[in-house]
Amino acid sequence: xxxxxxxxxxxxxxxxxxxxxxxxxxxxxxxxxxxxxxxxxxxxxxxxxxxxxxxxxxxxxxxxxxxxxxxxxxxxxxxxxxxxxxxxx
Length: 89
Known about the structure:
Blueprint: E1 6-11, E2 21-27, H1 31-42, H2 57-87
Antiparallel strand pairs: 1-2
């Protein structure tokens, strides 16, 4: 909802076809969000610098478009590679 603050848990796949997805959303003042932020704060792992994203719908539509375009390019390259190896005996 516009004007609210939330904690988003993002999942980013390791493959070239992986699309970043929202795994969970918690209201910023909820106990789950507070527990999550405390766990992140208490870990010894280097998780990088926390960031605040202020984006709109246009940003996410553009991101999705770009990811789909990249995926289509990879499929095109892999099909060309497959055709090359299939025809060379």
